[in-house]
Amino acid sequence: MRKRLKTPVILLSALIALIVAGLTYIPYMQMDGYVRRHVDFGRIYEASEFGIEAERLTLVTDDGLSLAAWRVDAEKPRAAVIFTSGIHNPSVTAFFGHAAMLQKEGFSSVLVEMRAHGESEGDLICLGTKEYLDVGAAAGYVQSIDPELPIVA
Questions:
Q1: What is the enclosing helix (H) or strand (E) of 80?
Q2: DSSP of the chain
Q3: Which site from 23, 39, 44, 101 is most exposed, i.e. has the minimal number of CB atoms within 10 Å?
Q4: Tens-place pLDDT, residues 68-112
Q5: Average pLDDT over the chain, rounded to whole?
Q6: Is the pTM for the entire model greater than 0.90?
Q7: What is the model's pLDDT at position 124?
């Protein structure tokens, strides 16, 4: 009787192990194409298309990557807003329209092209595990200009 019970238990355990292994592999299978490449955008917007001026910046992260960024100033800013774009969304320059609206309301903006996107360095999208350094570089830049200015990221 014990032999009859032992075989199904082994088969069931093997089946469960295969299912768990398969389920573990699915995220890697889906995300690998997203994270192991540099994202180049088909369209880069100009600030002038939105009736504003933007200063082109290069920010350097704590891990040494150079990031493309743009600064849109407001006269006597109430705060600085840091814009980033998503994993495969359009270039952050698509947010110049938002920066123009905020500028009218007294907010400055820093638009950051995240690592491995556009003109920014890097070939690996880290799903947030390193991108905080990109936002930190922008925040550090804002603080170097005005340490008292509130920052919205």
A1: strand 79-83
A2: -HHHHHHHHHHHHHHHHHHHHHHHHHHHHHHHHHHSS-B--S----GGGGT---EEEEEE-TTS-EEEEEEE--SS-SEEEEE---SSSS-GGGGHHHHHHHHHTTEEEEEE--TTBTTS--S---TTTTTHHHHHHHHHHHHHH-TTS-EE-
A3: 23
A4: 999 999 999 999 999 998 887 889 999 999 999 999 999 999 999
A5: 90
A6: no
A7: 86
